[in-house]
Amino acid sequence: MDFNVAILLGTYIVSIVALFLFVYSMSKGMFGDGSNAAQMIFDKDEIGHTEDPAATLQQKQKLQFDVGDKDTYHDDLISDDLTARVEADQSSSLVVGICFTLAVIWLLLASLAGLASSIKLHAPDWLVGYDFLTFGRIRPIHVNIVAYGWCALSGIGVCLWMLPRLLKTKLVGARWAILGGGLWTIGVFLGVVAIALGKSDGMEFLEFPWKIDILLIIGGAFVGIPLWLTLLKRKVDHLYVSIWYIAAALLWFPTLFFIANLPNFHVGVEQATVNWWFGHNVLGLFFSPMGLATIYYFIPKVLGRPIHNYNISLLGFWALAFFYSQVGGHHLIGGPVPSWFITLSITQSVMMVIPVVALFINQYYTLKDNWRALLHSPTLRFIVFGLIMYILSSIQGSLEALRSVNTITHFTHFTVAHAHLGLYGFFTMVMFGAMYYIMPRIMHWEWPYPSLIGLHFWLVFIGFAIYIIWLTIGGWLQGMAMLDAARPFMDSVNLTAPYLQARSIGGGLMTLGHFVFAIHFFIMAWKFGPQRLGAAVIGPELVKKYFKKGAA
Amino acid sequence: MSKKSQPFEMDEKRLIVGAMVCLSLATGVMVLMPYFFTKRISPPPGLKPYTAIQAEGRKVYVSEGCVYCHSQQPRDAKQAPDAKRGWGRVSVAGDYYYDSPHLLGTMRTGPDLFNIAARQPSKDWQLGHLYQPRAYTPGSIMPSYPYLFKVKNSSEVTPEDEVVNLPPQFAKPGQTVVTTPRAHALVEYLLALDHTYSPLPAIAVPGDEKQLSGDK
Question: How does residue A425 score in pLDDT terms, banded at 50, 70 and 90?
């Protein structure tokens, strides 16, 4: 045991010393000048101009009037840099469009599978005739489609779109990403079929059989190729904070997925530690970084003002990389694994407060005095909602890792609600916002029915609120009932019934919202519907100038 | 943009190295150390390897996703009243010696199953409960598994069929429910889930030889 104590102590000392060195070197300005770096996502006249291609003309005017610092509109800006940006957008439009289309289809399938799982928990004799529809298969199908279908592809799409803009050059090697995305999608499809046929590997988040996982690893690595190729061709000195998150995520995922899926290697309880080392890292080191990269780009972009304190975002990044990678053990509190393992993960879970506070400070001061923008910008509404949910779910996660809280919430629907707070409230909402911004840029077409954006937001907002609030309460009560030895186990089952029904209602509204979104998305993708005010590219003159060259 | 490069300016190299160092640390602590820890473990003397039919049943447990509602890890009495519910003593790493994939689980929508065989050793109960859980536990939200069974006319039942004896009010007259191989194997596995042996190695106590050798 002495060895274990030494390991634990060593880890603490390393983390604390690293943290202080980090803060020290940052205060000495060794990380470069933050304010310049924070402004690099803007061109010379752009700061002070709000920008949301998803907004209507009226919304754009109000947005600029309420939060912009200048009296002119973004649409009137003309410069060579903006032309270059249009070209950067063009270079990524095909691959991003493909990723989004696939992601939206997966989103619908995932919603239906999730809704079916939810209903089955209060109607246990519903659709029991076929094995592929049983709860124990449709639930992992839901989780895997959400994670590897919707979240991964939408995230990759948004990241590939941000890359050329942030590196101020064209996306190089987009065809690798198209190939990779194709392999990935085939992998997800085959994996889901495998689960439906009962060929699951049996571990949460790792259900796909390992032979199918090879497709995801190769596909994921291919998606990374344009990132590295474009980095080599970059025309900027400094890498913006979003790039760190994107690069790290695309590096981390294949590594994680490969190690976790090594066949015939993992043994006994070590399988459980690997399972949750992976299970939490796929969230913390793959989805979260992609979501945060998106937040760091779009909030300043829409508001037309740089991030409040750029250097704090460095602290946030490295603290996330260090602490988040070790939190997985909190899924095994009370389980048959060594106590140092659990203690380490609990500690790092609590330390996650550091990057979360860093993000909070940064974004809060960027948004401060600009809250009215949420009224006018559809993009910002989704993304700021996602940001708030990220902060809530992270703090909830840190608390949930504490032994006293975990004893109640572990094994209950509370955890399921927490997972949705993160992957839905945070990640999915951020992706919605980003897609509303990006689609007009890559399609050169405005969203045909702006009211559908509002309908989508309110459907998923209300549905999500019902889902989270009731399931969290129900899960907590379930945990309390289970801990009371005087109450029979069935009490903990019976009392959840109304909460599970409420969850189905919430989930139903969310699904409805997704269909509204998908219909709107496909109307736009095929350029049906009324075209408001011409194409939503940066300034009408620019369109003419650009399209004279014959590119479409 | 920035005029001169600072000592810690984030470039590709620092980013890649830093990101991979963080991940390697985590992998070392959360994958490699548990790996060597687990390698050292030997199975408790009371734990038997799975028989062929039990292993087959375990695969059905995996494919039907039982793990999404049932854990297999009773917690310590100091933490939770699992033992008082009859779920058994706290489990130790050695109890999982023969398990792959692990089925520790993260949900208790249903009860812990690590010692279900000790708690409910009746094969009839297990089979009937899979066919229709609500015939045995009113209010249960466990799915029924009709596709793991066949309903036959009672006159057509052959001696090879494994008949499921349902409670009278759930049995349809003239019809008999028989198992498929999957249901049979699954129940064989469930009936092997008994970890009530002592996880500690036997300590020789003087005078115990007689008892241990079997003559009581």
Answer: very high
CA distances for A193 relative to A114, A119, A137, A144, B175, angstroms: 16, 21, 10, 11, 34
Provide the domain count of chain B: 1
CATH code of A60-545, in short, is: 1.20.210.10
| Residues β-bridged to residue B107 | A411
Question: Does A124 contact B143 at a Cβ distance shorter than 8 Å?
Answer: yes
To the question of pTM greater than 0.80 for the whole model, the response is yes
CATH number for B61:
1.10.760.10
Q: Is residue B202 part of a domain?
A: no
Q: CA nearest A471: which of A510, A521, A506, A447?
A: A506
Q: What is the pLDDT of residue A70?
A: 87
Q: Measuring CA to CA, which residue among A259, A313, A448, A291 is closest to residue A383? A: A291
Q: Would the CB atoms of A139 and B68 count as touching at under 8 Å?
A: yes
Q: Quote the pLDDT of residue B206.
A: 63
The per-residue pLDDT for range A437-479, each reduced to its tens digit, is 999 998 888 899 999 999 999 999 999 999 999 999 999 999 9
- Distance between CA atoms of A191 and A203, rounded to whole angstroms? 13
Helix axes A80-120, A152-167, angle to 10 degrees: 170
How far, in Å, CA of B103 to CA of B71, rounded? 7
3-class DSSP assignment, residue A247? helix
Place of tokens 């246990």: A124
How many C-alpha atoms does A26 have within 13 Å on its Cβ side? 17
Place of tokens 């695969």: B59
Reduced to 3 states (helix: H, G, I; strand: E, B; else coil), residue B107 is strand
pLDDT digits (tens, 9 = 90+) for A16-30: 887 788 778 777 776
Cα separations in angstroms, B143 against A133, A196, A283, A502: 11, 16, 29, 19
Q: Torsions phi, psi of B150, nearest 5?
A: -125, 140
Predicted local confidence at residue A297, as pLDDT = 97
Asked whether residue B3 is domain-assigned, the answer is no
A493·B2 Cβ contact <8 A: no
Contact B5 A32 (CB under 8 A): yes
Domain range spanning residue B80? Answer: 56-190
CB B96 within 8 A of CB A336: yes
In this predicted complex, what is the ipTM?
0.92
- Give a three-class secondary structure readout of B1-36: CCCCCCCCCCCHHHHHHHHHHHHHHHHHHHHHHHHH
> Which of A231, A283, A493 would you mutate first to test chain B, the one with the most B CBs within 10 A?
A493
**For B119-163, what is the HEC assignment?**
HCCCHHHHHHHHHCHHHCCCCCCCCCCHHHEEEEEHHHCCCCCCE
Amino acid at position A86, single letter: V
| B44 within domain boundaries | no
Beta strands in A130-271 (DSSP E): none
Please give the average per-residue pLDDT across B1-14, as a whole number: 65
- Give the least confident one: A67-71, A108-112, A288-292, A430-434: A67-71
d(CA A406, CA A397): 10
Q: Which residue in B has a C-alpha nearest to residue A497's C-alpha?
A: B141
Q: Can you give the residue ranges of every domain in chain A?
A: 60-545
CB contact under 8 A, A411 and B147: no
Confidence of residue A13 (pLDDT cuts 50, 70, 90): confident
Do the Cβ atoms of B140 and A493 come within 8 Å? yes
User: Span A479-495, mean pLDDT?
Assistant: 97
Interface test with B, best of A35, A135, A282, A414 (most B CBs within 10 A): A135
Q: How many angstroms separate the CA atoms of B10 and B13, rounded?
A: 8
Does any domain span residue B51?
Answer: no
**DSSP labels, A416-437:** HHHHHIIIIIIIIHHHHHHHHH
Closest-CA distance, B170 to chain A, in angstroms, reads: 14
